[in-house]
């Protein structure tokens, strides 16, 4: 891994009750997921929490990454935003690594 390579800025879209701490946690999760990926030029993360207690998974975390000219997308919905962020990290890491193979 080249320690001098630039990491792209992560752009965020949020809706609902999303704290600065949760946003920072999402940034760490995405950076971790992309740690071994080469060629990421843009990253957009969406965090959303719907205030509806009747929904089983009101929290959504989504990332869209431009990786070597390909759009790699991962998302997860969960009862809580921290759970959605954890699942997003796992899914994005898998998709980013499989995108590097081809």
From TrEMBL:
InterPro entries: RHF-like. It comes from the Bacteria. This is HPF/RaiA family ribosome-associated protein. The lineage of its organism: Bacteria, Bacillati, Actinomycetota, Actinomycetes, Streptosporangiales.
């Amino acid at each position: 891994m080249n320690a001098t390579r630039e990491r792209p800025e992560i752009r965020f879209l949020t809706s609902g009750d999303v704290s600065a701490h949760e946003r920072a946690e999402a940034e760490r999760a995405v950076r971790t997921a992309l740690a071994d990926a080469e060629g990421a030029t843009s990253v957009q993360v969406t965090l959303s929490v719907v205030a509806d207690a009747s929904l089983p998974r009101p929290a959504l975390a989504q990332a869209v990454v431009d990786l070597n000219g390909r759009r790699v997308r991962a998302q997860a919905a969960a009862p809580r935003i921290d759970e959605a962020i954890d699942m997003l990290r796992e899914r994005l890491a898998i998709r980013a690594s499989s995108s590097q193979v081809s």
